Amino acid sequence: QLQLVESGGGLVQPGGSLRLSCAASGSTLDYYAIGWFRQAPGKQRELAADIARSGATNYADSVKGRFTISRDNAKNTVYLQMNSLKPEDTAVYYCRATTANIYWGQGTQVTVSS
Asked: Residues of 41-63 as b/e, b for ≥16 C-beta within 10 angstroms?
């Protein structure tokens, strides 16, 4: 059974950077497409970025040019590098792994505030 653990969240000032990690255990991540989702208070969960098994990436318009998703199969980890952070990026960030089944991590809080 695949298990996902996110880390790297925290409090950062506007314009700052964070790198989120999604570490997998129980299976090999290169079998899965991986997405980073986020959910702000009172809002629906939305896709921020995803990466296919091929390495092809996709970004929401709101993060394009600021966020970068990448995967390190040797470390069984997917990353989300977030630069030029804005207050509207404040949310709980979740990673999701998808094949025939869907697996979610528990989330990590990102707060962008001065």
From this structure: eeeeeeebbbbeeeeeeebeeeb
